[in-house]
Specification:
With 293 residues, this protein is of the alpha/beta class. Helices cover 52% and strands 12% of the residues. The structure holds nicotinamide-adenine-dinucleotide. Nicotinamide-adenine-dinucleotide (NAD) binds next to helix 1, helix 4, strand 7, helix 6 and helix 11.
Length: 293
C-alpha cells in the first residue's frame, strides 16, 4: 500500500480521498480550509500541517483544486518537498495551457505527472465511480491507473499532457450546447400546444434524441430522476457548466478553433449567472429559455 498525499478536500476531493483510505492506503490530507480537513480526517485520512508534511514521504500526490492558479501554486511548493520520482496526479478541471505547463515543469524536475480531470460529480466521487480523462506519458498513466481505479469506474488515456483537460472541456461544451437545444425544442413544442411527455415519446426515439433529453430531460415530467422534477436543484450546477464553457472558449481562442455555438452557450449561461441562478442545475437554463427566469 502506498502513502498518498491528497491536497484539496472539498466537495469532490473528500469522497475521492476517503475511497483511497478505505482501500487501505495511508492518505496524507492537506487543505487550507480547516473544516474540509477535519471531514477528511473523520473519513480515515491523516491530517497534515503543511506541504512538506503531506508530500515528503508520499509515493503519489493527488490534487483536486478549484482552478489553474491554485494548481500552479500548489505544485511549485510540492516540487520543493517531494522525493524525486514521486507521481503527481492533478484531477482538477483547469485550463489546458496551465495543465501542460505544470506537467512540463514536473517532468523536467524528475516527477512523472498526468492531468486527470473527472466527470461524475460529487455522487461519483463518493461512490468511487468517476470517469477519469487522462493526459500524459504512457509510463505516468500506467503508474496512476491502479490509484485511479479505486476512485473511478472508467479510466481513459486521452494522449499527451493536457489531453485529459481537452476531452473534458470539449465534452462539456457539447453537453451545454445540446442541453440548450433540448430546452428550445421542448419550449417550442409546448408553446405550440404539444405537451412535454408526448414530445419526449416521439423525439427520444427520433433523430433529435440526445443524452440531455433521455437521461436528464430539462422539461419536468418525462425523466423522473432529472433535476427538472425537483425545482432544478443540482446535480451539476450551472456555475460549474459556465466554468467549463469559459475554459473551452479560452482554449478555442488559443487554438483558433471555430466554436460559435460554444460561444453562444457561454453567453446564455453567463446570462443565467447574471440573473442570480447559477446555483441551479445546468438544465435550469430551461427557465431562461421559457422566460420564467
Ligand atoms: P471545492 O471548492 O469544493 O474544493 C476545492 C478545495 O481545494 C477546497 O476545500 C479548498 O479549500 C482547497 N484549496 C484551495 N486552494 C488550496 C491550496 N492552496 N492548498 C490546499 N487546498 C486548497 O471544489 P470541488 O467542487 O471539489 O471541485 C474541485 C475541482 O473538481 C474543480 O476544478 C472542479 O471544476 C472539478 N469538478 C467538480 C465537480 C463537481 O461536481 N463539484 C465535477 C467535476 C469536476
Amino acid at each position: 500500500m502506498s502513502a498518498i498525499a491528497f491536497i484539496g478536500l472539498g466537495n469532490m476531493g473528500l469522497g475521492m480521498a476517503s475511497n483511497l483510505a478505505k482501500a487501505g492506503h495511508s492518505v496524507r490530507a492537506l487543505d487550507i480550509n480547516a473544516a474540509a480537513l477535519a471531514k477528511a480526517v473523520d473519513a480515515g485520512c491523516v491530517k497534515t500541517a503543511n506541504t512538506k508534511d503531506a508530500v515528503g514521504t508520499a509515493d503519489v500526490v493527488v490534487t483536486m483544486l478549484p482552478a489553474g492558479k491554485h494548481v500552479e501554486m500548489v505544485y511549485r511548493d510540492v516540487m520543493d518537498h517531494a522525493a524525486m520520482g514521486t507521481l503527481f496526479i492533478d484531477c482538477s478541471t483547469i485550463d489546458v495551457e496551465t495543465a501542460r505547463k505544470v506537467i512540463a515543469e514536473a517532468e523536467a524536475g524528475g516527477f512523472p505527472m498526468i492531468d486527470a480531470p473527472v466527470s461524475g460529480g460529487v455522487g461519483g466521487a463518493t461512490a468511487g465511480t468517476l470517469t477519469f480523462m487522462c493526459g500524459g506519458t504512457e509510463t505516468a498513466f500506467s503508474r496512476a491507473k491502479p490509484v485511479l481505479d479505486i476512485m473511478g469506474k472508467n479510466i481513459f488515456h486521452a494522449g499527451g499532457a493536457g489531453n485529459g483537460q481537452v476531452a473534458k472541456i470539449a465534452n462539456n461544451m457539447l453537453l451545454g450546447i445540446h442541453m440548450i437545444g433540448t430546452c428550445e425544442a421542448f419550449n417550442l413544442a409546448e408553446k405550440l400546444g404539444l405537451d412535454a411527455q408526448t414530445f419526449f415519446d416521439i423525439a427520444s426515439t427520433a433523430s433529435g434524441q440526445n443524452w440531455s433529453m433521455t437521461s436528464y430531460c430539462p422539461a419536468p415530467g418525462p425523466v423522473e430522476t432529472a433535476p427538472s422534477n425537483r425545482d432544478y436543484q443540482p446535480g451539476f450546477a450551472a456555475a460549474m457548466m459556465l466554468k467549463d464553457l469559459r475554459l473551452a472558449q479560452d482554449a478555442a481562442q488559443s487554438a483558433r478553433a471555430a466554436t460559435p455555438l460554444g460561444a453562444q452557450a457561454m453567453a446564455l449561461y453567463t446570462l443565467m449567472e447574471a440573473r442570480g441562478a447559477e446555483g441551479l442545475d445546468f438544465s435550469g437554463i430551461m427557465k431562461l429559455i421559457d422566460g420564467s427566469l
